[in-house]
Design brief:
Elements: E1 2-6, H1 11-22, E2 26-31, H2 39-45, E3 54-58, H3 64-73, E4 76-79, H4 86-91, H5 93-114, E5 117-123, H6 150-171, E6 175-180, E7 183-184, H7 195-204, E8 209-212, E9 218-219, E10 222-223, H8 224-236, E11 243-247, E12 253-254, H9 255-265, E13 272-275, H10 277-281, H11 296-302, H12 310-323
Parallel strand pairs: 1-2, 1-4, 2-3, 4-5, 5-6, 6-11, 7-10, 8-13
Antiparallel strand pairs: 9-12
Helix pairs in contact: 1-8, 3-5, 5-6, 7-9, 7-12
Bound molecules: nicotinamide-adenine-dinucleotide.
Nicotinamide-adenine-dinucleotide binds next to α1, β2, α5 and β5.
Length: 324
């Protein structure tokens, strides 16, 4: 099978590429390295078993001619390229909206032209400001006003979902939509605001652990290889076509408790420093208080759901950052 992965030099994309290569697929990556890193896939290029089956294009998904060529060659497309991370969205709001909306529209246009099955990586952020749990795919969606730019990420990803579903309904395009909850593991960078690699790096350096807000906001965390497993199983299933799926872990923890857990695990002398949201992100910032998925629908279709414990995930990240 020939697989195109947009954003394949990113954190999740590189794990997906590795998994596809292990299965014997030919893998094509397009990535502009805006938040990705060539180091994430260089070891795959250096592997003699994979070298002849891995093709990396450092370019943007907005490049019409290249996308035409790559989509034409491949059998299936995983669309992971996006402007990612709260910091990226707030610092580059316009570029982020263009990448997420025009970029996805380009991917879908090409997949429709060649009738290639496509999986879209959306996000738990699309649920917005809910505080109930668990979040179900059919839940209503609540956002803050457009003056609060944080919501532009959620709104752009929601628009991607609508566009994909419209191609499915109008043209029969085989689309699968996945709402990823906080995904964690080796190769994730803390540089764009991702909480676990940031906290672990601070703890290992015995620096203050910077918790935004009062730390009472809760999250669940999913191990990246569990996410990749779910993505590939959904791609292989006809029952997933035209459907939306949560992919996430179910162990809920407050960010303050997470910081304390990481301090204990790493035997760090770090203290916790609370930073008000407006100091960290400017006055127009709003956070999501709670985000816990229902993975019932996912389990019904693929027969399993992410199940790695938070302790397991944290140990993987600590080992990775220590060895960097
Ligand atoms: N990591 C998470 O917790 C999480 C949660 C929800 C959703 N997601 C989604 O999963 C996908 C992958 O995220 P990730 O965590 O691996 O982040 P990442 O930043 O590591 O990966 C995104 C990749 O897309 C690339 N990219 C960005 N704009 C591009 C463009 N115009 N052309 C080509 N490449 C471009 C980046 O360089 C990067 O390699 C994203 O769509 C993201 O929205 C991730």
């Amino acid at each position: 099978m020939r697989i195109l992965i947009t954003g394949g030099a990113g954190f999740i994309g590189s794990h997906l590429a590795e998994s596809c290569l292990e299965k014997g697929d030919e893998v094509y990556i397009i990535d502009d390295l805006s938040t990705g890193d060539i180091k994430n896939v260089r070891f795959l290029q250096d592997n003699p078993n994979y070298r002849d089956r891995l093709f990396i294009h450092i370019n943007t998904i907005l490049n019409h001619d290249l996308m035409l060529e790559l989509t034409g060659i491949c059998d299936q497309v995983y669309h992971l390229a996006a402007a990612v991370g709260v910091q990226t969205i707030l610092e580059k709001p316009l570029e982020s909206i263009i990448t997420n909306i025009q970029g996805t529209e380009k991917v879908l246009e090409m997949c429709n032209k060649f009738k290639k099955r496509v999986l879209i990586a959306s996000t738990s952020e699309v649920y917005g400001k809910h505080t109930h749990a668990p979040l179900v795919e059919t839940d209503n969606i609540i956002y803050g006003p457009s003056s609060k730019f944080r919501w532009s990420y959620a709104a752009s990803k929601l628009m991607d979902e609508f566009t994909a579903l419209a191609y499915h309904r109008k043209n029969g395009l085989e689309v699968i939509i996945t709402r990823l909850f906080n995904t964690v593991g080796p190769r994730q960078t803390g540089a764009y605001g991702m909480v676990i690699p940031r906290f672990v790096a601070q703890a290992l350096r015995n620096e203050p652990i910077t918790v935004y807000g009062d730390g009472s906001q809760t999250r669940t965390f999913t191990y990246v290889k569990d996410v990749v497993d779910a993505l590939t199983k959904l791609m292989a299933s006809n029952a997933s076509i035209g459907e939306v799926f949560n992919i996430g872990g179910v162990e809920e923890i407050s960010i303050l408790d997470l910081a304390n857990k990481i301090i204990a695990m790493t035997a760090s002398t770090s203290r916790i420093q609370l930073i008000p949201y407006d100091e960290a992100f400017g006055k127009d910032f709003e956070d999501m208080q709670r985000r816990v998925p229902s993975t019932e629908k996912l389990a019904q279709v693929i027969g399993s759901a992410p199940d790695k414990s938070l302790d397991f995930i944290l140990n993987q990240v600590v080992d990775f950052i220590k060895n960097q």
